[in-house]
Each structure stands twice: as C-alpha cells, then as structure tokens.
Write a structure and sequence with these properties.
It is a single chain. By secondary structure, the chain is an all-alpha fold. The longest helix is centred in the middle third of the chain and has 33 residues. The chain has one domain.
C-alpha cells in the first residue's frame, strides 16, 4: 500500500509511538472514569423517570449522551494508536468519524429539548456566555468538518462503494495530522459541553425542591 504521509504525519506517528504506553494508560483511566459516570447517568435517568421529573430527565439524558460520545471517541482513538498496521489504524479512524456523524444526527433533537429548559437562567451571565460560546463551536465544527466526515461515513463505512479501488484510494489518502485535528477538536467540544452540564446538574440536584 502507498499510504500518503506528510512530514507532519511521520513526526506525529513517531511521537505517538514513543509515548504509546503513557497515552494508552491515560486513555484507559479516562475511559474507566467515563464508564463509571455512565452508571451514574443510568441511575439518575431511572430516578427521574420514576419520579416523573421530565425536565430533569432531559438534562441528565443530554449529559449522558455527551459522556457516552466522549467515552467512545477515546475508545476509538486508543484503538487507533495501538493498531499493528496502517490499514487497521484507518479502520478505527473511520469508526470515529461514524461516531461524529451520529453525534450530529442526534444532537439537534437533544439540544432542542434542552433549550426548552430554564435551569441555566439561574446560573448567571458567565455560565450562559459559556453556553453560547460552546454552541458556536459546535456549529463551527459542523461547518468546517461535517461534510468531509459525512463523505467518509456515507461511502466508506455506513455504506460501501462497490468500486474497491476507490475504497483503497481513500484509505491511502487518510492523513494522520488531519485526523488528529478533527478528533481532538471534537473531543474538546464534548469535554466543554460535559463540564458545563455537570455544573447545571449539580445546581439542579441541590435545588430540586424549588425548580422541578
């Protein structure tokens, strides 16, 4: 295979190789913590449903969705850096792109439900300004990368082009530097949303009696 690799790609690949053990350890720790969070979201959602806390359910569901996507992104990235050959690496990258596409397919509906809530109005201007900033970043990422991600999703993973030469050509043209840029930016967005929602959930838990 004649994989296209820029100087930056080679440099990044070598640095990942040198720090592989530590990177893998960091991924494992993060994934483990996120899995524990998913258990808490599961319990919280069940409580909301049993007590008919519909608005609180929407908030917990949004936060759980973001945590799940962030965890699965790290799983795909960990698998990619631990691959034994270039094709395997690119296969995990394709799966990560599928996750990004799926996030945006679901995000709009979840965000629409979330916008009906008014919990954030109790958290002050600084919090609400951060919400507006991250909303803009979600839109900017969509504008910058989703078209490319969708092409990969539609032609090379969710559906496969019948021409194998085109499949091979796509795999050869995957650039590590571009992939890292896309995945890190997406991961950063998820982390920022998750951090804000954690603040909002904490506020709701402490003030449930007056805002439910």
């Amino acid at each position: 295979m004649k994989y296209i690799q820029t100087y930056v790609d080679v440099f990044l690949k070598e640095n990942i190789k040198q720090g592989l053990s530590e990177l893998t350890k960091d991924f494992n720790n993060s994934i483990s913590e996120m899995e524990k969070c998913m258990e808490q979201f599961q319990k919280g959602l069940k409580t909301c449903r049993n007590k008919h806390l519909d608005n609180t359910f929407i908030l917990w569901n949004y936060a759980g969705f973001v945590n799940m996507c962030a965890m699965e992104l790290k799983i795909h990235m960990k698998s990619a850096i631990n691959s034994t050959n270039d094709w395997e690496t690119r296969t995990h990258i394709k799966t990560a792109y599928l996750l990004i596409h799926g996030f945006y397919e679901t995000y709009d509906k979840i965000q629409k439900d979330y916008c009906r809530l008014n919990y954030h109005q109790f958290l002050g201007d600084d919090y609400n300004n951060k919400l507006k900033t991250i909303s803009s970043q979600v839109k900017e990422f969509r504008k910058s990368y989703l078209k490319y991600v969708s092409v990969i999703r539609n032609n090379y993973i969710a559906h496969l082009l019948p021409n194998v030469e085109e499949q091979i050509d796509m795999m050869e043209r995957f650039q590590l530097s571009q992939t890292i840029e896309v995945l890190l930016k997406f991961g950063s967005i998820l982390n920022r949303i998750g951090s804000l929602l954690k603040i909002e959930i904490s506020f709701v838990i402490n003030n449930l009696s007056i805002i439910k």
